[in-house]
Design brief:
The protein has 9 helices and 6 strands. A hairpin with a 7-residue loop joins strand 4 and strand 5. It is mainly α. The strands form 3 sheets. Strands 1-2 form a two-stranded antiparallel ribbon. A two-stranded antiparallel ribbon has the order 3-6. Strands 4-5 form a two-stranded antiparallel sheet. It has a domain of 133 residues: Alpha-Beta Plaits (2-Layer Sandwich), CATH 3.30.70.20.
Length: 237
């Protein structure tokens, strides 16, 4: 049984419909709008006999349609999207990373001097920079570096910086893990993270340079905490 409200609503609608009925051949009407209200085209409700064609509805001209100012909140609060979808950019970056020349590791990421030399030989690199020992060393210019190889990563490690990944930028392509699984991990349906702050400095540097979105960095401890970067230090404690 219909409630009193629904009964009243039904009678109101029926009354409005009966007042707006016109002949099948009469021109359609547009309901008058209050002053200042946006123009919304409303075709008239008509009764059409079987077999007769519907009259052409009335549509407001395009220049009369309401428009919102560009500084309205609906626009100003809406972020501007890049020409391509993020997924397309990420896919392109992954494809580029996987299409690059692969680094021959010669082992699983050992930090022994012999394995550094083997990796340098396998990749046609100059082994003259592999002159140190395991642990802290000092270059000819007086700068400390960590491990047998003197490069940007070994100097950053010796300076007390942390290896970190900006997971907001990471696209989970796995390039860093391909360089060395001893230092990086990529869990399923997640972003990459360091799992060690020590390791083969040649392969760590390879991972930094191979990352298609450059999200791997050596940073100060305070900066890592301030920016919320993944350092893997929680996994090491």
């Amino acid at each position: 049984m219909l409630s009193r409200f629904r009964q009243g609503l039904r009678e109101t609608v029926k009354s409005a419909l009966s007042e707006r009925r016109v002949g099948a051949n009469d021109p359609p009407r547009v309901v008058p709008r209050p002053a200042g209200a946006p123009i919304v085209p409303v075709p008239a409700l008509v009764v059409v006999a079987a077999g007769q064609a519907l009259p052409t509805p009335v549509v407001a001209p395009p220049d009369e349609l309401p428009t919102l100012p560009m500084d309205a909140p609906a626009y100003s609060e809406r972020p501007t999207l890049p020409p391509s979808a993020p997924g397309s950019l990420a896919a392109a970056a992954v494809a580029a990373a996987r299409g690059a020349a692969k680094i021959v590791h010669a082992d699983t990421g050992s930090t022994e001097l012999g394995h550094y030399l083997a990796r340098a030989k396998a990749n046609g690199r100059d082994a003259s920079a592999i002159t140190g020992a395991v642990g802290l060393n000092r270059a000819d210019d007086g700068a400390p570096y960590w491990g047998p190889l003197d490069n940007e990563s070994s100097r950053a490690k010796a300076a007390g910086k942390l290896l970190a990944i900006d997971q907001w930028e990471c696209i989970s392509c796995g390039t860093c893990v391909e360089q060395t699984e001893q230092v990086f991990v990529l869990p399923a349906d997640a972003k990459a993270s360091p799992i060690a702050q020590d390791g083969p400095m040649d392969l760590i540097q390879d991972a930094i340079e191979a990352c298609p979105v450059t999200c791997i960095h050596w940073v100060e401890k305070g900066e890592a905490a301030e920016r919320g970067l993944a350092t893997g230090t929680a996994l090491l404690t």
